[in-house]
Amino acid sequence: MNQPLAGLAPAPVTARMENHGSHMLKVAMQTGNDLFARVGSMVAYEGFIQYEPNPPAVRQIARDWITGEGAPLMKCSGDGLLYLADYGANVVVINLGGEAISVNATNLLAFDANLQWGVERVKGLAKFAGQGLWNTKISGQGWVALTSRGEPIVVDCGGGEDETYVDPDALVAWSPNLKVKGKRSFKAQSLIGRGSGEAYQMAFSGQGIVVVQPSEDSTDRLRIRG
Fold first, then answer.
1. Residue 211 in contact with residue 165, Cβ under 8 Å?
2. How far is CA 94 from the centre of its chain?
3. What Pfam families does this protein's entry cite (predicted)?
4. Which residue, 203, 205, 196, is CA-closest to 223?
């Protein structure tokens, strides 16, 4: 019976965070190296790991998470191996290496607790939807795991004058140093975006990347915020 399942066994640990398949995250936990993870994302663990939902560090920042779309987080600590997943979504693992990333909260699975993070308003979009779009900015030396509804693409904006346009419902994350502005389109409303109203796109320019998922989120991100 074990022979057909042998290929699915966990591989030896080689990094703090890594994929086990495309839909699961494996985290090597060590005392003093805590983790923030989406509540309910734990599917298995080995060793001794404790969980604290809505810890003080999260409550303090969550006061700014006024969009109703903020992901509830738990603090994970201890020693062992932790496995996380989000309803079969693809998992993308990123080692920030001192850089920063701006993440849609609904796509945030886990990140090292030592990283700097906070909720911030995306400039340039307020005129399109009340107070605009809010995202979670994470920076520092450490690991971040994102989810994507399907295998994502990573678009390199290249630093040129051309802009990259993205449906906000398909947006996962982007480099926070990119310039962002909104674009409203009536003619494209039946081809781009969801719903029967105006179609919105987000235009990115500068040096950096944009991560896009092939499945649009069920929430209209530019309409519910305010």
1. no
2. 10
3. AIM24
4. 196
For position 125, what pLDDT does the model report? 64
Query: 78, 134 in Cβ contact below 8 A?
Result: no
On whether the CB atoms of residues 175 and 154 are closer than 8 A, the answer is no
Closest CA relative to residue 205, chosen from 183, 166, 168, 179: 179
For the residues of the chain, what is the DSSP string, one character each? Answer: -HHHHGGGSPPPP-SSEEESSSS-EEEEEBTTB-EEEETT-EEEEEEEEEEEES-HHHHHHHTT-TTS-PPPEEEEEEEEEEEE-STT-EEEEEE-TT-EEEE-GGGEEEEETTSEEEEEEETT-GGGSTT-EEEEEEESSSEEEEEESSS-EEEE-TTSS--EEE-GGGEEEE-TTSEEEEEEESTTTTTSSSSSS-EEEEEEESSSEEEE-SS--SS-TTTS--
Across the strands, what pairs with 128?
Answer: none
Higher pLDDT: 37 or 59? It is 37
Strands 143-148 and 90-95 turn out to be antiparallel
User: What pLDDT is recorded for position 187?
Assistant: 54
